[in-house]
User: Fold these one by one.
Assistant:
Number 1:
Amino acid sequence: MLKVFLLLVIASGISGCGGWKYKANGEVAFEIRSWNHDPIIRVVEKADTKSFMDLGEGFGKDKYRVFYKGDEITGASPETFEKIHWAYSKDSNAVYLFTCKLEKAGPETFQLLDGSWSKDSKSVYHGHQLVEADASTFRYVGNNWALDSANAYHALSSVSLGCDDNSHLKVKIFRNIDLETFKVIDGFKAQDKNGAFDALPSPNKALQPTAKSGG
């Protein structure tokens, strides 16, 4: 029987990590290597060694289950599973980020945007957070800002490892903006003809009384 060691490259934002590869011996294991600590090895106890395949970017599967960085993606179908990009993946029934299932996401129309945003034909997401927005007109405009046909959205380009909505950086929504004059100033500020918007204060509020916000 083969022993599989997955040596993963952790995302570039985490310093000190090396590469990944397979090694042979009798069980599937996930190994994290770094120049500043000894290898960390996690045995993937549920993996079937005979049918296990490395899919790259931390993904693997056997004939029974799908895994990301050694953890099972619960409910994912090995037969129809495919990577999308980075930590995103899908099968015929659902879309996943890390090991989290994106609520209501349709794999056939799902697409990644910039700034940790994504959408399908009906829903919009920041990371794994479902956002109330118009998917048909939603677009990322840069510097942490996005727009749809009526509102502006601000969220830092960062996602939580947890699947719980409470563990995620929340999206701030500025409602009823003027699209024709809306302009991004920087990573936290924007304006339109009616006023200015500041994404730093909490709860969400605009710098000008005429600029409505919520979320």
Number 2:
Amino acid sequence: MGVPSSQLYGVDILAGRVSAVSAAVPNAHVAQADARALPFPDARFWLVTLFLVLSSQDSAAQLRTLAEARRVLQPGGHIVVWEPRVPNPANRATRLVRLKTLRRALGTDMSSQPVTVLPLLARRFARSPARYRQLARLRFICTHRLAHARG
């Protein structure tokens, strides 16, 4: 995407995932850490992304992780969150991230959009980008939420 890997930072709580990312993206700064206590100074980043992080946490941990994301965000920066918005019967360990939780942590001016057409339908019926866009207009079959907030 044009960003030098030396400007990429990340954390994962699992050492194996940190090792895998470090091997795949050698110059990135990846640490084994808990998202509820990030090892970065305040206002360090212009962009903070949380992709499928919150859905492995209970609601208290979700709020703490979102507070940490805000802490390390520069004024005027962006937080982007992608999480399930409907239950996943194939993975009962996945927790939903409630819209009210996101608004409580990120503010009421946060935007949210249902995205990601139900994978079984997408694979079967949406073999073209145009067909996928048509299906994506049917919000009730969109399984995830993309949320955005500015710092």
Number 3:
Amino acid sequence: MAVRTFTDDEGRLWKVWATVPGHRALVAEDFRSGWLTFEHGMERRRFAPAPLTWERMSDAALALALRAADVVRPAKPADSESGEGSDQRPDGGLG
């Protein structure tokens, strides 16, 4: 899984990766084809749909996507077990 880091306009370092929901995941239609997950500390955001060329986007373009992304509320333990688009971290952890 590809992971990028970039610094936003406020100087914060973000990790970004593409998330694709499982076939049984219950997600909003806008997110069914996948999204970009942005993570900074405990903050997470989702941008959908994930651009096909996101890995080659400039940091400035990623920062624009970040600003347009939806803030993700912390997942409840039950959400993680259901596979409900849990934004699994590239290191295997769940968000």
